[in-house]
Amino acid sequence: MNSVAVIGASLAGLYAARALRAQGFDGRLVIVGDECHGPYDRPPLSKDFLTGSTDPGQLALADAEEIAELDAEWLLGTRATGLDTAGRTVLLDGGRSLTTDGVVLATGAAPRLLPGPVPAGTHTLRTLDDAQALRADLASGPVRVVVIGGGFIGAEVASSCAALGHDVTVVEAAPLPLVPQLGGAMAEICADLHADHGVTLLTGTGVARLHSGGTGRRVTGVELADGRLLPADVVVLGIGVRPRTAWLADSGLPLDDGVRCDAGCVTPLPAVVAVGDVARVDGVRAEHWTSATEQAAVAARNLLAGATVATHRSLPYFWSDQYGVRIQFAGHRLPTDTPRILEGSPDDRSFLACYERDGRTTAVLALNRPRPFLRLRRELARTAQPATT
Amino acid sequence: MHQGGPVIPVCPLADLPAGESVRIDTAPPIAVFHTDGQLYAIDDTCTHQDASLADGWLEGCLVECPLHAASFDLRTGAATCLPARRAVRTHPVTVQDGMIYVHYAAEEGTAA
Predict the structure, then answer these.
(1) To the nearest whole angstrom, how far is the Cα of B79 from the nearest Cα of chain A?
(2) Other C-beta atoms within 10 Å of A308: how many?
(3) Is the ipTM value over 0.85, yes or no?
């Protein structure tokens, strides 16, 4: 393999490029990114970056020295528009194209939007530009913020906005947010964090439409499905993401909630691998920071080998920082698994819990208990490994 | 090296058995580790993102960050595993009359 194109210049793409070089690939390496920024870390965007305690420079995932060592050609501000697998060509915007032996798909995911027009003052939070626009909109003094979606991004944005002194309401369509991730009992504890910090959480209602008016037709309110109208100066949508696969529609690759690939991140074409949020690896699309970094090493190895010689089987892990509480979760939880508090107390917003199935621990959750969480997570990773291979 | 900084009492050595770590709430905070027979002190906050290394996983002379598994060499402060790229500062540790003391290094005193 003499050339590899990495499509996507964020966490998964950078880690794939690093892994290719670390594993001895010394051919032509091209990294294509549609944003004009080099690889940066997204998790702080809804947290420290929004509250102003982190600046863009601190988000960079690689320094100048490492960028030089990677010896890659960077095509930033460039969008991939198609993949011609027969001709081994990546089509780029502006009519350009890129011929390559191997391709790493790392185009990530894009935020879901509400149907209908999007008035000014309505934000999503995925990219650095998104975060900068939201930060600017919040800078003019206390405003009324409505966050649509009570998942992790929504909760983190609500927390950051509350810390900045804004009047915040979170609207969640489900009866309780985070139930798919944490189960009802634990989700309820996390939902209580909003009220602890003066943020209103409205659940069980969808959004009918956004109201706008005045000069600039800025957003003025959020009309709920039950008819209530929430006045709003700023609206943030945190209603999930879609894998960015539209550009691959004519590629012939199997697309079904992501690029379908095997447990080694390999698509039906051995010269095409997928990593990060765009990849549906062995039936699962993870959307986790840690998964993206781990998949990159596996995908690079398989791409260079020309076959699936390694698989990604590590324990899913994610974290969220909101309202001064660090939530960490790891494991494979089923809805029927039963949570049990091992230490601490939900009332103190500081506890360690495990989820059990037939007397066996399947997952672990902590609020502000990083040390015992790490111990349990490692134990779980060790014991869970043989069961899943 | 490391001269002029304050000397900070940590805890009795007996209270920090091998394999344990403790965080001191200095500004910035410091983490003190007891490995097999050695004491080390480094800046507590991971250079990647806000996480306390005193809560990390201690293995030999390395500590792994509890948030993203970045790792640091306690002897030098060097980042040995991504996503961290920058070293943490190290601070000399002494034991006197059974008490652990950290000799807080000046800002420039990064050992690497």
Answers:
(1) 13
(2) 18
(3) no
